[in-house]
Amino acid sequence: MNDFETQLGDAQATGWLPAKHRVRRLQRDVNPYCTGDELAPHSPVFFGRTQIHHRICQKLRSPSPQSVSLLGERRIGKSSLLNQIYQALACEDKLLVVKASLHGLSLKSPADFFAALHQAICQGLQLPLQENITDFADFKQFIHTQAQHYRFVIMLDEFEQLSSNHLFNADFFAHLRTLAYESKYCLGYLTASRQPLKTLCVDGGIEESSFWNIFTSYEMGLLSHSAATQLIHHPCHFSLGTDFKPDSQALLKRIGKHPALLQIALFEIWIDLKTQSPSNWKHIRRQLRDYFEQLWEVRSDAEKTVLLHILSKQTPTDKSTLEDLQLRGLVDENGQFFAEFFAEWLEQKKPKSLYEDGEQAEKKVNSVKKIYNSIRSIILDLRKDWKGSSKTQKDDEK
Length: 398
Prior knowledge:
The protein is an alpha/beta fold.
């Protein structure tokens, strides 16, 4: 099994269609909203991201493709955007795009990685696979030869899976960096991850490779108001008819402009509209709990502090962390939670969280006290022994 998918660009191929053309592909009376997997290329329910899409494509279309790191929270739409970019590059002549999701990667070593990548490139360029390349030096020579005629973009989704794997060491990432850093290879990367590449490299013990410092980073946060409104109304209109109108005001207030959470809610609301039933907001809220839990658990202490300040209607003093949370889509441009349902969930979560934190702190204090008392007892015993020994010595001298 090859872990890579390839696409060789052709100037005559269809690139990425505008939203007004994609949405016309919807089928009548078929629920258009997607609640699970990433959105496929040309998805009729992919809206917005125009600016970041354009900027990334411009960098990847360079004569020597530049490397880009796409950052964002889980389910914010990174993989869906990668799929749209993949489609957009289909009409870029002689640009070979190699795409891989690293979740569940079957490759077990750098040699496996380069062998699979070599095989994928040969298939994409329709070259005979004369021998299986596993050594980086041979792979580098192979790319240099092909770069006389082609350009390359390697898309690596869920990059954490690779950087955290101890089988892929600093030398491996230094080799990857060489291919993108030296223009003669005409190769660039597009990675997607939750954490910045520098953080991943440090956490993975591969910071000396300097792999991260050749990338331009872009953050994915919430949709724009316009894109969120289009997602709410256009698919419903094309699949049900213009008489069916979701309550966009209630959706934006309760769910916010989060693309995946809107899809989950709209999937249910579409059914309610079709059957002329009232919207079951309690059911929708329950479906979002697991995501809210995961969103909270991966937060740093500084981020949790800011979020709790917002919850208690206090002004956060840590402006840098607040800006990070806004970029990541947990807090909107007005400094409020991205969704009313998240605020309600956190309000219920807070007493338990604070209790657990207090309980853990109390255990730590008690543990420190025990250690202190033990050390103090030992010191007192040593002092007694020393005094006794000193007195005996003086008596013997007399």
